[in-house]
Design goal:
- It contains 34 helices and 26 strands.
- A hairpin with a 4-residue loop joins strand 12 and strand 13.
- Strands 10, 11, 14, 15, 16, 17, 18, 19 and 20 form a 9-stranded mixed β-sheet that branches. It has an 8-stranded mixed β-sheet with strand order 8-26-25-24-9-21-23-22, sandwiched between helices.
- The termini are far apart.
- The structure holds adenosine-5'-triphosphate.
- The site of adenosine-5'-triphosphate has 20 residues, from helix 13, strand 15, strand 16 and strand 19.
């Protein structure tokens, strides 16, 4: 019952010095003893389970039944081959699955929250798993509580405990000891529970339990990275079903045609099974999974961590990126450059320091400040760090000031109020220090400090202050107003009493330069049909000045402020957003309306966010993007993607990667489908014409599951198309058959099928001794000649499909332009495919098992010549497109 023990008892029981925290050595010892601060891993699927998952599909059952029937009718070698192919394919599937699993594991590591601890007297951020009992943890708004904590300090701390108690209204916490036992979790006010969320204020606590020993550890399971299926995967499952049903229908049709032609029933059954095998792209789901997983890995390298798989696809369709300004478009390295007070602006480098008013400003910005600058480390909000650094430069040391004027009360900054207030003991009185946006502070101001005196703030003065603020903002400076007042009793410590009748001290202007790479990324977005929108809590003029510099906005009317936005109805806003590129002085709530308006106009919106209140807009956006460095845990958990460098340019890279991943998956799918159509055409036409079957089930299985699989995966790994960001975003409604892909699939399927059929007929002609292909007696083909001709068809079908994979690399560019060697995996896959076929045909045992025939050099040349026809055809088609088709 930690809540019933006082702070000293807790500290001594856990053997920790409250001033310095644990030593690193002690942490390591405890880590060994207590284990990492995490929940027990959910059971990873065993290899055996993964293997059986692979086999657990309708198609495999059909194949097993077929193998059984082959076995019964004495076709032992066919039965064995089917089993071997199922086995090999399942093994490939297991390897792919575990690779995908591994990639997702990595993601989980990156996405776990960090915690701020005090160890050896130093405040630092560590991964939450490394927290041990006895650690001193600092919590602030937006952070998840990393372990069960007994609070030793709480300032306006509010924690949302819904994950534990189901109660979604945040509860207020304090550090007072509760003097009775048996208090339910929801009422343990001095305990902060693991996985709950600090929504307001800040606090400090001692870790009392970690990992499985925490309250949530006892009841909950790990927050897992979502493995939702992507829209494409869903569509593919649908397509798989359609193909399955389609192939059964076509198989039945073939069966009956054969039956009425008077063929052997068993023969016809086997041919029908062959057709079903030929029609279904068995490897497709596994290939899509692996390409997605590898794509996600590539994105991590480009500093974008995908939390929700479907986002990878949606990224490719993004047409609007709404980005925060501070830190994402700018460097978040703020430096105070100008101060306005006592009627003049002066640069920080040469301030006029005689008047008491200057001293008060620097005291205020040091005291009303939560940043920490030590020899070792600088932590805190960049705005506050900049203020501290400026004060320090002029000889104001926060540590000394903090001792002199002890902080006794505070109202934390939040982006809704856009200001922060602290109260400090000053002998028997209290100093109230306030800093924030000018719009927030000016209405609360009654006096202005001038020549050491407080004079009434009149409208003329207000005009002047605004004028000076605008001047600074026009120079792209972020402007903060500073004010103070004095009160003499604690009963005044409420927001409405503290934050009124303020004495205005001055303005601080700080520069936050744009990130170097962002301008280029914005231009790149423009080329790619993506509009960049700036959303910021900052002043309208500052925002516009930076937006102009970055190429986001051209004219001032393109900006809209939060208060203007409030006056618009949803319909009006829909119209307004068409011409707005900068939203300034907006609060997180506005962001939701902005996203909705863009979405209502048919856009696919990516939205960035970092704050506690950004979660709703991140969820509302099609792709929610959170900041990995400066973002709160809430924002990260609500996002689809986390940027590990908080950089706008990374979003653009992620969009590019998303487009490429989609394009590559599409290549794999179209490749497999067109190849399979080739098989269907070959078999269907032959049976329809009353000819013997050109291939048997095992031949189709072999090609579908082995020789086709490698090029399909290799296509999924095709290097990024450098022109992908010159295209418009893909419509979210677009199917994989859009843009001529349906026709392409059919055309090449038919071509490959007919070429293989031609090889078959030519084989029959050569080895039945007929006069010409027109005089072949299909009804009485001798077995040896048939096997020979089937081998010709088998080789032509497999090689033409292998070569056809090159056709999918680009819609328009010639192979010479893309570079034959630029996808080494594909080249290797094709070489392996060819090698397998050569071995099969030339090794006597194999060729007996597979019922194929040794081929002569002429046969090989003939088959290869036919197999490269699709490439020649495709190169001609692309050349034609390059000349005559603009898009
Ligand atoms: P963005 O939304 O682009 O990240 P931002 O960081 O300027 O912009 P907020 O952090 O919401 O947005 O800040 C809004 C305004 O609040 C700022 O323009 C500034 O005037 C004021 N402000 C920011 N930080 C502080 C702070 N620590 N204390 C007091 N006022 C602050």
């Amino acid at each position: 019952m930690w809540y019933a023990k006082n702070v000293q008892t807790v500290a001594s029981e856990l053997d920790v010095d409250l001033e310095t925290g644990l030593s690193q050595k002690e942490v390591e010892k405890r880590l060994d003893f207590y284990g990492a601060n995490e929940f027990k891993e959910y059971k990873k699927p065993t290899l055996m389970k993964l293997f059986f998952d692979q086999i657990n599909s309708l198609l495999i059952y059909i194949l097993l039944v077929s193998a059984f029937i082959f076995f019964i009718v004495g076709e032992i070698s066919d039965a064995i081959i089917i089993l071997v192919v199922i086995l090999v394919n399942a093994c490939i599937g297991v390897i792919q699955e575990s690779k995908a699993e591994q990639a997702l594991e990595e993601l989980k590591k990156i996405a776990t929250p960090k915690a701020v601890v005090k160890r050896e007297g130093i405040i630092k951020e560590v991964p939450s798993q490394q927290i041990v009992p006895g650690d001193i943890v600092i919590v602030d708004a937006g952070r998840y509580i990393p372990a069960d904590l007994r609070l030793i300090e709480a300032v306006n701390l509010k924690i949302e405990e819904s994950s534990l108690t189901g109660e979604s209204v945040p509860v207020e916490k304090d550090a007072t000891t509760l003097d009775q036992g048996g208090i339910p979790l929801a009422e343990q006010r001095n305990i902060a529970f693991m996985s709950t969320l600090a929504t307001y204020g800040r606090g400090v606590g001692i870790v009392v339990n970690t990992g499985m020993n925490t309250e949530i550890g006892k009841i909950a399971s790990m927050l897992e990275i979502s493995k939702d299926t992507t829209p494409l995967q869903k569509k593919l499952t649908e397509l798989g079903k359609t193909l399955g049903i389609g192939s059964i229908i076509v198989s039945a049709v073939i069966f009956f045609i054969g039956f009425f032609q008077g063929r052997d029933v068993l023969d016809m059954f086997l041919i029908s099974v062959s057709l079903a095998v030929a029609a279904i792209p068995e490897g497709l789901p596994a290939i899509v999974t692996i390409v997605l997983a590898l794509g996600v890995e590539r994105m991590i390298k480009r500093r974008a961590v995908v939390r929700k798989l479907p986002a990878v696809e949606t990224l490719g369709s993004v047409s609007i990126i709404c980005s925060d300004k501070t830190g994402t478009l700018t460097q978040n390295k703020m430096t105070v450059t100008k101060i306005y007070t006592g009627d003049q602006i002066f640069p920080l480098s040469s301030p006029v320091l005689e008047e008491p008013i200057y001293a008060r400003i620097f005291e205020a910005i040091s005291l009303c400040n939560d940043a920490v600058i030590t020899k070792h480390e600088t932590t805190g909000d960049p705005t506050e760090i900049a203020l501290l650094e400026a004060a320090k430069k002029l000889g104001y040391d926060k540590q000394i000031l903090d001792q002199q004027y002890k902080r006794v009360f505070e109202i934390a900054f939040d982006s809704e109020r856009k200001m922060m207030t602290t109260v400090h003991q000053n002998n028997d009185r209290y100093l109230v220090m306030i800093k924030g946006a000018l719009e927030s502070i000016l209405p609360l101001t009654s006096y202005v400090m001038k020549n050491g005196e407080n004079i009434r703030c009149e409208s003329k003065m207000i005009e002047k202050i605004n004028e000076q603020a605008n001047k600074m903002a026009d120079e792209a400076l972020r402007v903060l107003a500073v004010a103070f007042k004095e009160v003499d009793c604690e009963t005044m410590f409420t927001p409405d009493k503290l934050e009124k009748d303020l004495i205005f001290l001055g303005l601080v202007g700080m520069i936050d330069p744009p990130r170097d790479e962002v301008k280029q990324s914005i231009a790149q977005c423009k080329n790619a049909g993506i509009k960049t929108i700036m959303i910021t809590g900052d002043n309208q003029k500052t925002a516009f000045a930076i937006a102009k510099e970055l190429g986001i906005a051209k004219e001032q009317p393109e900006t809209l402020s939060g208060s203007e936005l409030d006056r618009l109805s949803d319909t009006e806003l829909r119209e307004k957003v068409k011409f707005t590129t900068v939203f300034a002085r907006v609060s997180p709530e506005h962001k939701v309306r902005i996203v909705k308006a863009f979405k209502a106009n048919g856009h696919i919106v990516a939205m960035t966010g970092d704050g506690v209140n950004d979660a709703p807009s991140l969820k509302q956006a099609d792709v929610g993007v959170a900041m990995g460095k400066n973002g709160t845990d809430v924002a990260k958990m609500a996002a689809d993607i986390i940027l590990t460098d908080d950089n706008f340019a990374t979003i653009v890279s992620a969009v590019e990667e998303g487009r490429n991943i989609y394009q590559n998956i599409k290549k794999s799918i179209i490749f497999l489908l067109s190849s399979n159509i080739g098989g269907i055409v070959l078999l269907f036409v032959a049976i329809f014409l009353g000819w013997p079957a050109p291939l048997s089930a095992i031949h189709f299985l072999w090609i579908n599951l082995l020789t086709d699989t490698l090029p399909a995966i290799a296509l999924g790994l095709d290097p990024n198309d450098p022109d992908i960001m010159k295209q418009k975003p893909r419509s979210i409604k677009e199917t994989i058959f859009a843009g001529g892909s349906g026709a392409f699939t059919l055309l090449y399927g038919v071509l490959i099928g007919l070429l293989s059929l031609f090889a078959f007929v030519a084989g029959l002609d050569a080895y039945t001794g007929s006069q010409s292909i027109f005089t072949i007696d299909f009804k009485n083909v001798d077995k040896d000649a048939l096997i020979h001709a089937q081998t010709m068809a088998f080789i032509t079908l497999s090689l033409s499909r292998l070569f056809h994979s090159f056709n999918l690399r680009h819609k328009k560019k010639a192979l010479t332009e893309i570079g034959l060697f630029s996808n080494k995996f594909l080249l290797l896959a094709v070489i392996i495919g060819i090698a397998i076929q050569v071995i099969l045909v030339n090794v006597p045992v194999l060729n007996k098992i597979f019922e194929i025939h040794y081929l002569t050099a002429i046969d090989w040349i003939f088959a290869i010549t036919l197999s490269i026809v699709p490439i020649i055809f495709s190169e001609l088609e692309k050349a034609w497109k390059r000349v005559f088709v603009i898009n």
